Amino acid sequence: MPPKFLTPLEVHRVLEKNNCGRCHLPSCFAFATAVVAGSSKLGDCPLLDQRVISRLTPSLKTRVELEPDQAEFIDRLEKKVATRNLRELALRIGGRYQKSRLVINSLGKDFFIDAQGGVTSECHIIPWLKAPLLSYITNPTHQDITGDWISFRELRGGMEWQNLFTSRCENVLKELADDHPDLLVDLIDLFQGETTDSMQADIALILKPLPHFPMLICYQSKDADLSSELTIFFDSCCGENLHIKALFTLCSGLVQMFAKIAKMHI
Question: Global pTM?
Fold first, then answer.
């Protein structure tokens, strides 16, 4: 089971909810998410009472606590990669084998994995991508893209992580889309996304953070008395190609990156 720590919704409840931007994030909900992720502190909100900060802080897992576990996990994954045949893996998981390295494309960018599990790229290598990338490479099962879209809950292990996924991924991204109507459209150009008419939504965007890992973001904007809705679907192969914890790490990391992009819209 995931550790019992505060969720973004629980942090959001104690905020002013005025989206003042004094924390340098686009909304109070984005700030709540950053606090839970460890990239912001409760004290970064100048309107939050010190007594509230003192009460909630013990229930937050800090970045310092997260990093050693993550580093150890990545080290284990690198050792697993070192036991694999990269040339054979490339054919199996939708990559390329080039100059003794496995090449994996993520959102339009190439990442190079050497025989020791080291990852290099022209862009910055961030832990929330590196760990799922290595997990994808070493995952014991693999399936080609099926074209069948399913919800997070329907993925293997998804029921257990559903609430955390809803609060840290779907709800956060929905609020970002509400506050920045052009954000999802921008993601198409930034990350070689595709639109589809197969879903009833104002925007239906397909992204491929890994070769055999398509995800579909469906957003319906607010209309009259109806509130906006955002749902993230996955090709049914995703649950076979990535463990649910790595899948969640990848999605929550993507949403954090989208929040930084949205900040540039202010």
Answer: 0.74
